[in-house]
Amino acid sequence: MTTSWNHFKQAARLGEPEQVPVALIVDSPWLPGYAGIDTRDYYLFPDKWLQINLDLLTRFPDAVWIPGFWVEYGMAALPSAFGARIHFHHDGPPSIRPVTTDINHWANAPLPDVQEDGFMPLAIRLYEHMEARLQADGLGIKMVASRGPLVTAGWLLGITDLMMGIMTHPAEIGRFLDNITTTIIRWLHAQLDTLRDPEGILLLDDVVGMVSVKHYQEFAAPYLQRIFDEFEGLIRIYHNDTPCAHLHAVLAEANFDVFNFSHKADIGEVKASMGHRVALMGNVAPLDLGMRGTPEAVEQAVLACLDKAAPGGGMILSFGGGVSPGTPPENIDALLRAARVWRPSAT
Asked: Partner of 277 at 20 to 30 A CA spacing, among 84, 135, 157, 343?
C-alpha cells in the first residue's frame, strides 16, 4: 500500500511513476454488497465497517482506495445537517428528500454546526475513534471527503427548482451556495482535524456538469475554487462523472489536482482539452465493463486507456466514477493486472 500510495501521489502531482497507480472510489453503494451484509449494518456497526475496509487492503494490496476508510452515510451527511429527511434502506445507501422549494428560505437559512448537527458529529467521532485504532496498527486515514455545493443544494431544494432558481433568483441561489460552501469547508476541516497525517481531500459534485459554461462561471467556479484554495498543499481530487465536455477546459482552472470524470468522455480528448494542468483519474466504464464486463474486456480497455493518456505522466487508472454496485472483484483484479503489465510504446 505504501508503494502504491507513493505512486498515486507522484501521479497526482503530474509525475510519471514507474507503474501507473490504480485508485478506486469505494463507498456504501458497493461495499456492503461486496461484503454480503445489510447496508444499514455497514453504517451501524463500526467493527463491521472497519473489517470490511481493512479486508480491501488484503484482498487488493496494490490498489489505492479513495478516500479510504470513508466514514459516510451515502450522500446524507451534509443534507442531514440542513434538515433533510433521510430514508435508510437495507440494500442501498439512503435516499434524501428535499426540505423546501422556498428559495428565500435557503438564501437566509442559518448555517449548521458541523460539530453538532445531523450525521456530521457522528462521523467526526467515528473518525477520531478509528484513526486511533488504525494508527495503533501502523495504518492511518489519509483523506477525507465531502459532497460539493451544487449537489448539496440539489438535495435540499430539488434539482429542478435549483436549476430554475439559477435563472429566476440568481442572487438568492448565490447566497445559498455561498453558505453551503462555508459549511463544506468547515466540514472538511473538522474531518481533517481528527487525522494525524492527512494528505488529501475528495470533493464530489456531479450537478456541476449539468450547467452551461456561463452558469458554471457564476454558480460553480467561485465555490469550487474557494474550497480547493482552502486546502492548498493537500492532494485535491474532484469527482464529476456527469458528461460535461463543454466544461473540461474551464474546470482545469478550479485549482484541484486530480479529475475523476465520466467514462463517456474519451480520455485522450480530456487530456487534450485540460492540458497538463490536472492529473486524470479514469477511465474504464464502471457499468458496461466494471460491473457487466469480463476480466479480459476490462484488461483490453485498460491498455487502450493507458496508451492514450499515460505517456507524460499525470495518469491514475480508475473506473470513470466510483465502483458500481455489483462490481465483481475479478474485474478489479483485471484493472490492477493490466496496470502492472502496461508499458509505454517505444515509438
From this structure: 343
| CA 46, chain centre distance (Å) | 22
Beta strands at 279-284 and 258-261: parallel, antiparallel or unpaired: parallel
Question: What HEC string does 37-73 produce?
Answer: CCHHHHHHCHHHHHHHHHHHHHHCCCEEEECCCCCCE
Query: Which residue is listed with cell 433533510?
Result: 84
What percentage of residues in the chain have a pLDDT greater than 70?
A: 99
Domain boundaries, the chain: 2-341
Question: How many whole angstroms from its chain centre is CA 330?
Answer: 23
User: Structure pTM?
Assistant: 0.97
Cell numbers 476480466 correspond to what residue? 295
* DSSP state at residue 292: T
The CA-based angle 276-278-283, given to 5 degrees, is: 100
| d(C-alpha 158, C-alpha 286), whole Å | 26
Summarised one tens digit per residue, pLDDT across range 64-99 is 999 999 999 999 999 999 999 999 999 999 999 998
Exposure pattern of 175-207 as b/e (b: 16+ CB <10 Å)?
A: bbbebbbebbbbbbebbbebbeebbbbbbbbbb
CA distance 45 to 238: 29
| Best CA proximity match to 151, nearest among 240, 230, 247, 255 | 240
Say if CB 177 and CB 226 are below 8 A apart.
Answer: no
Q: Which helix (H) or strand (E) holds 95?
A: strand 92-97
Element (H, E) at 85: strand 85-89
Q: How many CB atoms sit inside 10 A of residue 275's CB?
A: 10
Check if CATH label 3.20.20.210 holds for domain 2-341. Answer: yes
